[in-house]
Every structure is written in C-alpha cells, then in structure tokens.
Amino acid sequence: EDQVTQSPEALRLQEGESSSLNCSYTVSGLRGLFWYRQDPGKGPEFLFTLYSAGEEKEKERLKATLTKKESFLHITAPKPEDSATYLCAVRTNSGYSTLTFGKGTMLLVSP
Amino acid sequence: KAGVTQTPRYLIKTRGQQVTLSCSPISGHRSVSWYQQTPGQGLQFLFEYFSETQRNKGNFPGRFSGRQFSNSRSEMNVSTLELGDSALYLCASSGMLAGGETQYFGPGTRLLVL
C-alpha cells in the first residue's frame, strides 16, 4: 500500500527564519511527487511536480527536492503570507491520475 | 482559462438525506477526480472519471457514487448521509503541464451533516 508521511505536523517560524518540511514515501512505482499549498477554507493550490531523484524546482522562496525515499520543501526567509498548510502527494504506476496525500504540515510564520 | 468550479460551496443536510455535488473541470480536461478532506483523515481519494468512465475508486462505501457527462462535468452523490460524512469535498481536473500531468483543485464544497 502506498504511504506518504509528512513532518512536522505543525511548524512555527519567525519571519526570515528558513526551514524545511519533509515528505517521506513508500510506493510501488513513483510517477510523480506533488507539492500543494492550501489556505483555510480553500482548495489545494499546485506548487511543484518532481519526477526523478535529484530533481529540484524553485518558486520564489520555495525550493522542492526529491530523493528515492523523500522530498523536502525548503522555505527561505519566509514571510507571513507563506503561512498555510503544505501538502505532499504521490502518483504511482497503478493509480491512473489518483494522488495519495500526506496529512500536511501546517506552517505559521510570525512577523 | 477558468479554474475548476464546484457548486454549491456550502451545504447543510440532516442524517438520512442524500446530496449531489457538481464539478466543472478546466476546459479541455477530460479527467475528474473527487477527494474527501477531514481534519482527522486528511485528503482521501473517492473516485476518478475519464471520458465518462470510472477508472479508479477509493475505499469508500457504496453510498458514495459519481458520474461524468459528455462535456466532462462531473457529479458525486452521497445517499443516506451520516454524521461522519461532514467534510470538504474537493474536485480536481487533470491536465498536462510541462513535464507531465497535474491535478488542479476546485475550491471545494463544505458539507455539514446534522
């Protein structure tokens, strides 16, 4: 069974204090690892897709990396508007378009 | 392009009733997936439709059903509602982004069962 585990469950940072969120996965045949951002009461917003170990992608203060067992979302010099829940999901060979999600990391950035 | 739209945005029902939720995908997207999101379980996959056919289904009871129309719009139905069905129901449509297929989510329908 495909499993996705995110840590920590919650993270509180001061503005400008860089950190990383972790997503570890156990799947049979990875066809993509996805990062989403979700604000309260809204649907998840797509951030990145990573397909192979060693791949990295960046967007503003966010950088996602992928190894064979886990992915990291690095947040550099965060701002209060980066506060949200960050979700990691995987797509596998057996699941068509289906995504299996972790439970997310709730990030709070204080000014 | 317009994003994924879902209607209604909020619903209040009582136990035993049934409910139908609607989803319009991004224009040109043929795959629509439904997810249930609760604080305890997170996002859980319900089912996926592609070209009017269900091609994948999650571990939910038969009270949860769906369909897709020829214009790719999709509906999901929950019959005999239970208190535990209270959740945010999310619809996602799949399209190609540089490098591969990506799911784009709608704003969700918040269902409260009393």
List the helices and strands and how they pair.
The complex is a heterodimer of chains A (111) and B (114).
Chain A: E1 3-7, E2 10-14, E3 19-26, E4 30-38, E5 45-50, E6 56-59, E7 62-66, E8 70-75, E9 84-92, E10 100-101, E11 105-110
Parallel strand pairs in A: 2-11
Antiparallel strand pairs in A: 1-3, 3-8, 4-5, 4-9, 6-7, 7-8, 9-10, 9-11
Chain B: E1 5-7, E2 10-13, E3 19-24, E4 31-38, E5 42-50, E6 53-57, E7 64-68, E8 74-78, E9 87-97, E10 100-105, E11 109-113
Parallel strand pairs in B: 2-11
Antiparallel strand pairs in B: 1-3, 3-8, 4-5, 4-9, 5-6, 7-8, 9-10, 9-11
Overview of this structure, please?
The complex is a heterodimer of chains A (about 110) and B (about 110). Chain A has strands spanning about 5, 10-15, 20-25, 30-40, 45-50, 55-60, 60-65, 70-75, 85-90, 100, 105-110. With about 110 residues, chain A is mostly beta strands. In chain A, strand 9 (about 85-90) and strand 10 form a beta hairpin. Chain B has about 110 residues and is mostly beta strands. Chain B has strands at about 5, 10-15, 20-25, 30-40, 40-50, 55, 65-70, 75-80, 85-95, 100-105, 110-114. Chain B is globular and about 45 Å long.
